[in-house]
Amino acid sequence: MNRRRVIGWxxxxxxxxxxxxxxxxxxxxxIGMSMPQxxxxxxxxxxxxxxxxxxxxxxxxxxxxxxxxxELVVYDDKSSASETPALYAKLLDVDKVDLLFAPYATVPxxxxxxxxxxxxxxxxxxxxxxxxxxxxxxxxxxNAPWGPADSWATGFLTLGQKAGGKTVAILSADxxxxxxxxxxxxxxxxxxxxxxxxxxAYPPSTAEFSSIIRAVNAAKPDIVFVASYPPDSAGIxxxxxxxxxxxxxxxxxxxxxGLQFGAVMENMGSLLNGVxxxxxxxxxxxMYFDGTKAFFExxxxxxxxxxxxxxxxxxxxxxxxxxxxIEEAVNATKSLDQKTLAKxxxxxxxxxxxxxxxxxxxxxxxxxxxxxxxxxxVKDKNMDQFRSAGKQVILFPDRLKTGDLITPFEDARNK
Amino acid sequence: MQRSSIVFWTGALLFLAVVFAMTQLLRNxxxxxxxxxxxxxxxxxxxxxILGGYAGYVNFGTNAFFGVGVYTAxxxxxxxxxxxxxxxxxAAVVGSLLGLGVGLLTLxxxxxxxxxxxxxxxxxxxxxxxxxxxxxxxxxxxxQRPPVTAPFDSYVKMLFxxxxxxxxxxxxxxxxxxxxxxxxxxxxxxxxxxxxxCTGVPTLRLKLLACVISGALISAGGAPAAMYxxxxxxxxxxxxxxxxxxxxxxxxxxxSHWIGPILGAVLLGTTQQxxxxxxxxxxxxxxxxxxxxVFVVAAPKGIIGLFGKSFRSGGRA
Lengths: 415, 317
Known about the structure:
Chain A is of the alpha/beta class. Chain A has helices at residues 3-25, 42-61, 84-93, 106-109, 112-118, 132-135, 151-162, 176-191, 210-218, 230-243, 262-268, 292-306, 316-333, 338-347, 409-413; strands at residues 29-35, 70-76, 99-104, 123-126, 140-142, 167-173, 195-202, 223-228, 251-256, 276-279, 371-375, 392-396.
């Protein structure tokens, strides 16, 4: 071997050595999660993931966490409960992730709660509903603004009662989320001394709702609380539009899933007017915090490419907020220790793009920020109208309120 | 004992020994989570083949029997905190009764009509469970695992071993059926039911028996899933994906011999697990679809059809 070749090999060896030292010094912080990217929850899952990815890119642009880049390890759980146990076992045992985020929604999250508790891992929840009520994991922190379990029904039924309502009709889909919400609605109605005059669950495959709406009308309720899924929400509003619900109804809506997504809202158009429904973020003046505007500017651009909800109000900012909370906890404690991070998250209020978040003992928000908002002045076939304030006026909670309820429902439909 | 039986039982004992050794030696739990799912599909595919392969009655209601197994376990845990063995045994009994009922009601139908009737069965049972609040109803139910039993140090490892026992049980029963008069009778009625009836094969009785055994094994295979997932909801337990996957596994492996569905389930189950943690997107589903099309076109009798005559004809083994 001649001298030049020896020097060449030596230089290459040193360079490789330096590279490996550099990479050994700075391994990325791995955050693992499964996310529904196929199946029924895929629409929401992809939007949520985009929010988390925007946070990852922002934090990496700032130099990462503890001087290390942040890397996401994401698997598709196909929206199924049976997939997540194996995926989270892989994240923990094979990928050796440093931190865990939960998948979007209750069904894929419920099976991993016992595993995560058993392994002593911190878990940032992602829009699931009361999954920790049985498991009691003290390192669970849900990013969803639900707060106490009955907050959804409380907001809506209180608005109805203030408008003079005394009787309630509860109409719910026979599926996981809707039934959980309907149960709390019954309890809240009892607490508020509202008489339940109609209480019916319909099969998830129901497509035609005129007979059900006629039955609701026959009960002459003052308040109509609906807990429905996207296809049913559209069907119910079409039936209400055709048949009407009578002048006695002060308020209609509550927990109709689907009316938060751009494509559904564009499709429904003016049929939405007057409906009071839950939401998590809306482009109303009270909902802008540090970084909110910048986030949506980035989201709008990337949503087109990612083929997800162009508005992204419902899930994406909360995905970003989940990252922000971890960022704050890691930077404040200078640690990746699960217990240390959990202690910080439990004991402090966190500044995020969806507002300040404080956690209660059970890992849910101490104070609910589930919005009840009324659709107003919505025109047909126009997605962009939902980007401006005034189309969904926030009625509840009071601290975020941007307007008052227009009642009765039949009058509100024409506003 | 015949030579083939000695080979079979030696293989089965060796398989159980390897599985047991894995549970004692491996500390990483992921292989047990992933392996459990593959073994579960082996049980379901082998059980499905008794009716769908040997008798030629394509059952699209695998998800109904699977879900019944899951919810039998949920019911017993909720009501009596029953141990895993009791959950599986009870699921087998309920599955066999359901199989008997389905057989009596639907076995006079053939071909696509029978398949549609089994889909309807799944919908009827799912709707019933959805409205049954004691087992969680539409909202689903979270379950707490009891402490693990020695010599296992984790519940998932125990479930993996239990599912391996169920694999051996299902394969042994299916092998016995294939090599007995029952199997020959089922093959006869699959080829020509009228001719079989005319030659003295008790077709209805054999079909009922196939329904009962297949149903019992599928439900027994589904029962541990309640404790594996620690959560049950009707959407997941009665997911049509179980029916589709089991059908694909059996067809890809080949339905004329008990080894076919094992090969299909291991190949497709492993591919599914591998793709889930590698490609992890819609391509995952596409790859499985393409595999099915390729096998149906290139190997209509499944993997075993590519090999020896004894496999193709369902000969003794």
